[in-house]
């Protein structure tokens, strides 16, 4: 996600804006509160929080928007941290919170029944709240109806492929999945092939892939799915809308598994959560049907529960077959993927 730069602490509550000091001055101990630390965009989070407050009535939510350094901050706060729920994107970030020792295991029949085993930690240290797949953007008139990630390396696309930096977490996760599926040697051969097909330096953001397809720089590229919903639903006449209208999006699959590469947004309950029960209530709400519909319709993310209505732009991409590879397995290969990006000079 591309976030607007937000200062480290903004606390919102039912009754307006709270000073950060209020959270730290003991308000965290009140029985009817929950303190949410999130790296996600306020425009997405606030409607979800408002809906939670409306449902629960007597639970106040203090939200702290943290742009960077969530792990470091909660570690520094130590046992006195007021944090109850830690929310972020990317499986790597979630695993880092767990490995950093700032989460606790949660057992919840609701979370366990809604989320399949590959979308939550086996011990309950983190839970996925939404999905985002890494999809193919193509020039809108190209006759492509299906695609494998492996085809990105096909010489027929020489000079035609756009993508952001290989070292960006969205791409290291994709490359890590390729390593996990096919082994390091095959992944290297593939990544060298993709590199040889690049139309321009691997850089910029995901929406730049659509921009550069419209600009005739490339024909195809890889980027996250929710940007398709954002761009195609943008106001008429804006750059985003023009870029969105210039592409079509297809869900690629890995040749070996027939599944599409997916990453998660998710949350964990903090190790020293002063309001643990309310933290669990909040997580359970976030996987509920109304909350999942908000993730799907407002942020164009793929819901973690079945039968949630999506935005028409997103449902036009058809159903998603999630790669069977566990996101945890992907996270284990992150470092190897990053080293491979350097080894093949992908971002040079
Ligand atoms: Fe993004």
Account of the protein in words:
- This protein is of the alpha+beta class.
- The protein has two domains: 3-130 and 262-309, Periplasmic binding protein-like II (D-Maltodextrin-Binding Protein, domain 2, 3-Layer(aba) Sandwich); 133-260 and 316-343, 3-Layer(aba) Sandwich (D-Maltodextrin-Binding Protein, domain 2), CATH 3.40.190.10.
- It is 39% helix and 17% strand.
- The chain is built from 15 helices and eleven strands.
- Strands 1, 2, 3, 4, 5, 6, 7, 8, 9, 10 and 11 form an eleven-stranded mixed beta sheet that branches.
- Helix 6 (169-182) packs across helix 7 (184-197).
- The structure holds fe (ii) ion.
| Biggest sheet character | 11 strands, mixed
Query: Can you tell me the number of structural domains?
Result: 2
Q: What is the gyration radius calculated from CA atoms?
A: 20 Å
Which bin fits the share of residues in helices? 25-40%
Q: What structural class results from the helix and strand content?
A: alpha+beta
Alpha carbon gap, first and last residue: 23 Å
Name the CATH architecture of the largest domain.
Answer: 3-Layer(aba) Sandwich
Bound molecules: fe (ii) ion
The top level CATH class name of the largest domain: Alpha Beta
Question: Superfamily at the CATH H level of the largest domain?
Answer: Periplasmic binding protein-like II
Estimated share of beta-strand residues: 15-25%
> Which stretches of 5+ consecutive residues score pLDDT under 50?
1-28
Based on DSSP secondary structure assignment, what is the total number of beta strands?
11
Q: Write the CATH fold name of the largest domain.
A: D-Maltodextrin-Binding Protein, domain 2
